[in-house]
Predict the 3D structure of the following.
Amino acid sequence: VSDQKPLGCWSVKHGQIITCPVVCNFETHEYIAVHDDKVLRIWKDEDVNLDKVFKATLSADVYRIHSLPQGEPLVLFRGGGVRTLDVLLEAPQQEIENVISDEVIKWSEAFLEGQQPVLIFVTEKDADFFVYVQKLKMNSLHKYKLEQQELSNPLSFTAFMKKQIITLLCLYSNDSVYKVLIPLQQNSKEEEQTLSRSLLLNLSISGSVLKGTSLVVLDKDHVAVLGSLAASGEESKECLTIWNTKFQTLQTSKELPLGTSGQLWCYGENFFFTHGKVLTVVIYKCETSSLAAAVGKLKDSQTSDISSFVNWNTLGDEELAVSCQSQQSVAEQSESKMTLRSRRNTVAEVQPDNFTVGQFLLNIKDTSAAAVEDELRQLLSRAQMPDFQGTIGCVITALINRCKTDPTFYPRNFLVQLIQKRELSYSLCPDLMAVALEKKDVHLLQVCLQRFPDIPEEITYACLKVFLSISDDYLERTDVNLESVICYIDIEPNNKEVKTEVVENGFNTELEEDGCDVTGKKETQMMEDVEFCPVGPRKAALLNAVLHSAYSETFLLPHLKDLPAQQAVLFLRYLHYLYVKCSEKINITLPGILCPTINQIMDWMCLLLDAHFTVMVMLPEAKGLLSNMHKFVRAQVRFYSELNKIEGSLRELQRLKHYKDSQAYSIEVLELI
């Protein structure tokens, strides 16, 4: 999610429907899905086709599969029966009992009590709601009835377990959240009990009412509610809100103008919800709530300058510094808070010794570049600094904000040093590469491409376009790291590469040419195309950084189609040059540091041809290049085909070598058939 890279995609056949959420078995690292209610599928990352993976047809309809971090997945059937996955796979057609009668399951969740799995699910029948709690190892099942609420019904449920008590939170249609306590230690002989509930939270905000659709528990004092905020006489607006249940206050909220599906998920201190057509991820962190923090949020957010909650959007310099200082004050008073930050607008949480960080962030706005670098070196020299990576991201964001407002301020060398020496990512400082692109700082872009693991494809394409369009004269005046090219490109005064290496893998272009359609002049021209690098060493090093960057073909291909035709041809010539250079070596690797691999080169060649094949065919200057590439690949295929023919004989020779006495002199003639 942080890199926005799809890692895998699997599809069922046309007409089949996935009928419950897919889960991961943490013990076996397998995925588990159910389609058409009864058909179970299990597969791993390396599997491609779902038709060829494990399949089991069950005897009853599945409602939900629950995966536990340290336990066997649990399968809940629509009739209320529960099985562990291992027991179910021993006999997929085993009969599943019906626990509920004429009831419909509305929600379910699984927990671990010690080593014992516990499953809770809620059902509905004729506007009455029932709660079932089942302990699998003890084979005990308890049924409860939820206390009825006049003129309102539960819309969403969530629960957590602590000290053998399940706390069930219910979001009702009367815009309130109720709490229900369910003890796990019950007398098995007791009949159905009615669970009483208590009001936990009233979702009203300054006369407006939040019509919630989904809620999740963040910790014992905070919940998140997704819904529509409706004020009298105004159009309702969808928003995500965070509430303090201990002090009955709204802590923060974010309007979602593009709309949502009404579903909210929470996993590993991350919110997941759909916003428009995209999946949005919001990182949060909860600490013990305090009265000061709760009351502070009751102030008007437009007039309050001090807030213990970080804004959803990127903070300005003053807000960022105030946030850092307020955190120290909160720590001194044994108070705490919750911070929220989006993945793309990451703002770091700084804890001890953060007064100095706050002062530094305030000083950035009007201090000279040299003074800023001196103060920052002192800050980074500390031996102990919690959340060091987040602090650096926070500092870089402040520096970039200063660069945007002051064109004369640009601590380029220091930014390069920070990125080279620290394990940073694009998401920690998303505006850094945008500013570098604007200033055409190719060295900083090169370092970012080599160091950042999560660069969006749009930024990777923008870097490629800048590198291809920039002149060699401009590059001669810039600082570029040549470690990735210096070992295989020899420079003449006219900046052309001199070929000095010997062909080792048996490839000879002249032997592979068709004499009837290629003249001697064309043969010479083709060898020259392969012999000389089409770009200078600095541009080659920058292009290598692009090849080194991670990408997803799905997201990169649409951007590559916008690459101008002349730049596409130049890039393809360079890729062809690299491909030939790799093929000259037996180990098909280029010498040097951070050199592109043969797989990276071939993948980019295929991407570029997919994006521009029609244009390449129509351009006269590209036809010769395509022809040369075709002939070279054909020669490689023929060469490896010949190797495959003698593979068996070579293996036999290797086997015979172990049985011969190497000390005795002999001459043997082996006939290869």
Summary: Residues 297-355, 490-529 have pLDDT under 50 and may be disordered. The CA atoms of residues 56 and 89 lie 8 Å apart. Residues 456-490+531-618 form one domain. The radius of gyration is 32 Å.
